[in-house]
Specification:
With 217 residues, the chain is mainly α. The chain is 72% helix and 0% strand.
């Protein structure tokens, strides 16, 4: 057996690589997935220490009640965005095509995830926390954060386009690799709409609760 045969058995197939958007390392490639995961988990953890509905004092109006219960989530939102941006860009040196856009994506993603968790917890209470956890698991499996969407099982692939994390992962990938503003803009619009709709549903539920509990007292 000659040298050519050895090389043939060692490398029977040659792969032609067509790299479109190269990233610095493996961590950068997985960062969009884990940033999204961290933001949703942060929202979930808040439900363990903060009551999203129960007022500290007798509420005097729907808006005051809603705003008072949204103050802590707002602080957590600011805290999450600041910590993630500082740790990833300054601490770990994560490359971004635009730091300002990275901050905006992180802020809107955090807002959307907090709004989802708040809505589910406000409406369903402790059951809502469990629903949020199940929703997170479904998103992790269907958002194509670790593998291409083509490799996801068919049943989960059908959910891919309906998962908020799908769009956060796409947006973070774009800002850390391709810089494609059309993808970023589309994803941010979808996440913003999801967040606003969830906030409006939470507000409507607060109005219903106020009418039932306090409007006649």
């Amino acid at each position: 057996i000659g040298k050519d045969n050895y090389e043939m058995f060692a490398s029977p197939v040659e792969v032609d690589k067509d790299i479109k958007f190269e990233v610095d390392n493996y961590g950068t490639g997985l960062a969009p997935y884990f940033i999204s995961l961290g933001l949703f988990v942060g929202a979930l953890l808040l439900t363990n220490v903060y009551p999203f509905v129960q007022p500290a004092v007798h509420p005097t109006g729907i808006w005051r009640w809603f705003i008072s219960k949204s103050t802590v989530p707002f602080v957590v939102w600011i805290f999450q965005v600041g910590i993630i941006v500082a740790v990833l860009t300054l601490g770990l040196g994560l490359h971004t095509e635009s730091l300002g856009m990275f901050i905006l994506i992180t802020a809107i993603t955090s807002f959307a995830f907090l709004a989802i968790v708040q809505m589910l917890t406000v409406i369903f209470g402790d059951v809502g926390r469990f629903i949020s956890l199940v929703f997170l698991i479904v998103q992790l499996a269907s958002s194509a954060g670790t593998f291409p969407v083509e490799l996801i099982p068919d049943k989960l692939r059908a959910l891919h386009e309906f998962m908020p994390m799908t769009y956060s992962v796409k947006a973070f990938r774009a800002v850390t690799a391709s810089g494609d503003m059309s993808i970023i803009t589309n994803c941010l619009m979808i996440l913003s709409v999801i967040g606003i709709v969830c906030v409006m549903i939470s507000l409507a539920f607060f109005a219903l609760l106020y009418k039932r509990r306090y409007s006649k007292s």
